[in-house]
Amino acid sequence: MSIIRKRSADHKSYLPHNARDNQYILAEFTITDELIQRFSVQTSPAKITSAVTNNSSENYYQFYQVLAKELFDLSELFEVKNCLFIANDKLTRVRFSHEMHQWQTNQQILFYYNPESHQLKKSFFDANKRAKKISLLFMSTGTDIRENAARFHAKISQLVTAFAKKAAINVSDIRLRDHQHITYDLFSKNKLTKNKLAKDDDNLTTQSHKLRPISQRYADQEVTLPEFHSAMTYAIVNLPISNRLLNMVDIDPNSADPYNPLYTYLTDTFTQSAKRYNLNNGALIANGLVPIVRYSIHEIVSRIGELQILGYNPEQNPCGIISKWDASELVDNVQLVFVATDKNQTEHGFGRFLNQIEQALRLMTTELEMEPSKEEVIVRFHQHVAYNF
Fold it and tell me: Where are the domains of the chain?
């Protein structure tokens, strides 16, 4: 048995020490007529009720503001540093950045921040529009995020329960989504200096993870999730398109589909590498859309505006490898998606699953003649749980 085979069979995954942990929790509930009227009466009956029924310039301003104030007051009480009130029906995403900023598209609202240094409490809504739902976003802070994830989840659960009581919302109508991911460069070790590499035997450059399911990790810290919850585990990988890679295939700029040879080559290489390591549930996305992986009883592959929706049921057999590309457009990065099924989970966790992904990626990047010391292949390993209270 080769060394590669032995490593992929290991139940622990060895990630670089500069890998970034992240966690954010979303609590979502539908806006109803009753909820609007309740806060209209509580705040200013004449002004807000009139605003709700007429198309004035501030139809829902005070309605949103009152709920947001309840949220921020409770965040002070529960000592939650990063929380946001969102009522614009956009998909919420959170990413790491050394500089804090927010960015919105027609369908997404993205938050970039550093959990070690940034704090933010802010509202996002259009006072002239009634959103379908309200999202309360809580972003983790500090260090040791993965180790403290259960405590953060428990705290947010208590905060949301208190919010529901103050707003007179049936707590069972609130959907809680706990998102966690680990982000790192596949080639991180290749960029270390010789001195640091010499210390690798002392495990100073890597950290081991069993990548246990969230429910198991939480149970060990006496935080129990509801019996009926959905869970997803997957990885999304950014593969950059370089000039060197473009020169490996014949591209006819005068063709109606000039990049078909490139995406065909990448798909073939991706599929062969994935199957070589028994990874049979995934996708290659090269159409400029943002891949969104969701739990679904039945397999779903659909486009909704700028989003590529991929729905999977982890309890089902692998759905195979799919590819979605636009041969007329050159993308900056190809997204590679690996989705875990229940069979990818060992008694220890998903460590072996991530090892298989890494080995498939190394095989693929070798075929593509990538330069590990100069190029980046960013791996983001996701674990999600969701449930109604």
Answer: 3-19+188-388, 22-180
Pairing type for strands 82-87 and 133-139 reads antiparallel
The CA distance from 217 to 196, in Å, is 31
Element (H, E) at 4: helix 3-8
Interhelix angle 61-77/33-43, rounded to 10 degrees, is 80
* Mean pLDDT calculated for residue range 360-384: 97
Point out the least confidently predicted range of 131-135, 177-181, 251-255.
251-255
Distance CA 109, CA 139 (A): 14
- Residues 209 and 15 sit within 8 Å (Cβ to Cβ): yes
- CB-count exposure of residue 143 (10 Å: 0-12, 13-18, 19+): exposed
Residue 344 phi, psi (nearest 5): -80, -10
| Residue 136 in tokens | 């309360």
pLDDT score for 197: 53
Taking CA atoms, 372 is separated from 191, 208, 279, 332, 361, in Å, by 7, 22, 23, 18, 12
Q: What is the DSSP letter of 226?
A: P
For the full predicted model, state whether its pTM sits above 0.70.
yes
Token pair in block for residue 4: 């590669």
Q: What is the maximal distance between C-alpha atoms in the chain?
A: 78
Beta strands per DSSP E along the chain: 13-16, 20-30, 82-87, 91-96, 101-104, 108-113, 120-125, 133-139, 175-185, 206-209, 230-240, 281-286, 290-295, 300-304, 307-312, 320-325, 333-339, 378-388
Separation between Cα atoms, residue 75 and residue 71, nearest integer Å = 6
pLDDT in tens, 33-86: 999 988 865 444 444 444 444 444 558 999 999 999 999 999 999 999 999 999
In angstroms, the Cα distances linking 241 to 83, 238, 315, 326, 349 are 36, 10, 34, 14, 33
* Cβ atoms of 207 and 14 closer than 8 Å: yes
